[in-house]
Design a protein that fits this description.
By secondary structure, the protein is mainly alpha-helical. The chain is built from six helices and two strands, in the order αβαβαααα. Helix 1 crosses helix 3 (66-94) and helix 3 (66-94) runs antiparallel to helix 4 (99-129). The radius of gyration is 21 Å and the shape is elongated.
């Protein structure tokens, strides 16, 4: 019973936070990234101008707006969890009519959820740990020696 309550609490917390980050994300509105540039910018034009200024070739598909990629991932996870909740409610109601149909529905929804979860985690991992994902997540931030503590804190924010 304790394990079930902990699992439900974890599932509920994850669903709530995926919804918060999907629909009310506290991060900046945009983060445009070019593959070989270690800095993200708020506009596509800024990103292209910076890449051209330091002579970086912009690969096809770039600049990429990583903020939207991350939002898509959060919403994908949120709605996958919501669909599982809805399917469980439907399965519960069907259990009154036929236990066999409930078992089939549970098997299908569980299989789809696990498969979707594996694909969701794989995409999230690729997006997060790709070079553009690292830039957008702030992993590539580097502090120059001549930058004061106040200036660094402001630039990170």
């Amino acid at each position: 019973m304790v394990a079930a309550v902990m699992t439900l609490a974890l599932f509920g917390t994850a669903t709530v936070y995926l919804g918060i980050y999907g629909y009310n994300n506290p991060d900046p509105e945009s983060c445009w990234v070019v593959r070989d540039l270690d800095t993200g910018f708020k506009t596509k034009l800024e990103t292209e101008a910076r890449a051209k200024a330091i002579e970086i070739d912009i690969a096809e598909g770039y600049p990429m707006e990583m903020h939207k990629v991350y939002l898509t991932w959060f919403l994908w996870g949120f709605w996958a969890n919501m669909i599982l909740i809805i399917m469980n409610c439907i399965s519960f109601l069907i259990s009154y009519a036929s236990e066999n149909i409930k078992k089939v529905l549970d098997f299908i929804s569980c299989g789809l959820y696990v498969t979707n979860g594996a694909v969701w985690i794989a995409f999230g991992t690729v997006w997060r740990f790709s070079q553009p994902g690292q830039v957008a997540a702030g992993e590539k931030l580097a502090r120059n020696a001549d930058v004061s503590d106040d200036a660094w804190t402001k630039s990170v924010e």
